[in-house]
Every structure is written in C-alpha cells, then in structure tokens.
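Field reference: "sequence" (input) and "structure" (output). Example, Cytoplasmic trehalase:
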Amino acid sequence: MNHFYQEHHKLIEKYHISGGTPREGGGGEYPLQDGFGWTNGVVRRLIGLYGEP
C-alpha cells in the first residue's frame, strides 16, 4: 500500500494484495472511493503522532 500511496499520493478504500505489488481493488456495492471514513481519521492521527512515513 505504501507503493500505491507514494505513486498516487492518496489512500483508497480497497486494495488487491494477493500476488505482486498491491494495487487498487474493486467490486462491491459501489465504485472505488478515495479513503474510507474512519480509516482516514486513523491515518491522520497516526501521522500527527509519528510524522509522515
């Protein structure tokens, strides 16, 4: 996921992580979204505590 973030400068809701480099995922009830509610909040808090990776 770090590779995807470094390339696209954003977090996304779903990742396909089996085999090779993780990439954006898909499927489900709605189109892929940037971030995901609580995930964005947790990441912002961690960056605030520990700085950028």
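The radius of gyration is 12 Å.
The CA atoms of residues 18 and 27 lie 15 Å apart.
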